[in-house]
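Checklist before submission:
- one chain only
- standard amino acids only
- sequence pasted in full

Submission:
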Amino acid sequence: MGDREIASGDNDAAAGRAAGASAPPLLAVAGVERRFGDARSGGIAALAGVELAIQPGEFLTLLGPSGSGKTTLLKVVAGFEPPDKGKVTLAGRDITAMAPAKRNIGMVFQNYALFPHMSAWANIAFPLAMRGLARASIREKVSSALALVGLSGYDERLPRQLSGGQQQRVALARAIVFDPTLLLLDEPFGALDRKLRAQMQVEVKSLQRRLGITTLFVTHDQEEALALSDRIAVMNEGRIAQIGTAEDLYCRPASRFVAEFVGEANLFRGRAGVISGGAQARTVEVKLESGAMMRATLAPDDRTVHYGADLALVVRPERPRRLGAAADGEAPDNRVAGTVAEAVYLGETIRYRVALEGGGEIVLRWSADGERLASGTRIELGWPAADTTAVLWT
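Returned file contents:
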């Protein structure tokens, strides 16, 4: 893993990301199912026909609540869980039934899984020794891996003599020292405090970019997923609910579940009315339960929303703006009025909870540098249809 390899890996990764979907995926999961429990009753579907493709050099995160299937999917890719149906291919090879040790996959676990009686050097050297590499080659690769993770000089320390962050670096070095085709990270920062977790996120992302290594990451922490990922696959009940960039998921959620799970969201329930516009810009009018009308912009390819559909209108907390007595430019598509019920200072932002006239509430998250509103303040709010996403309520 010398400088030439790092530079080459970085270039390959950049080329793979630029090529996008036109490049063949490095990892492909096709129709994978996995059930647990009593087979006679059908068991519990941990994975229900998962389809996933990861491009070379991509950092893709599996994000979801506990029990959504993300760790089971990671184990199927690693070979620790056999799928009941479906196929897994890596770099063009069918690895569905292949033993974990033969897949050339590196993995970092949440609890690090270091050998407690082995030094940092010996832990990192272990996968190389298992592959029968010569001692000189092992020394060179281990020294390089230690340097990459910033642990040169820590060779002889046992895991108990290392901090949590240092143990994490040893586990990472062990996972990459044999030049794996794919790197799997299973909630690797879960045992670290907030400050160290943020530091390790930066280091792992930087190292992944330098090496150009394709990475599949599992977390339930949405901030972590948004910070690290090229793309995110949101999982729910054994299925991928939506896959896309952080911006896709936040600004254009495909379902109510994604809207509520990724970031904070205001939801207004109503019935779809008239849908107007052309192929590039379609707008739906929605009658809310309160009787008020709102408008939302639909994606050009959205065919789920139809007249009379039960909808959730998604409005992110930073989108609404306060309407003043003076002219505010064009009239907003959507307007509400209410009274500030709560104001919570969060550092860079203030979170307001506003009780709406006619019932319900809306949450706002505005910059702390702006005007401060006291509880009891009556305000009018407005925002465009373009900042309102319509998805089916179910």
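Reviewer check: The chain is about 25% helix and 35% strand.
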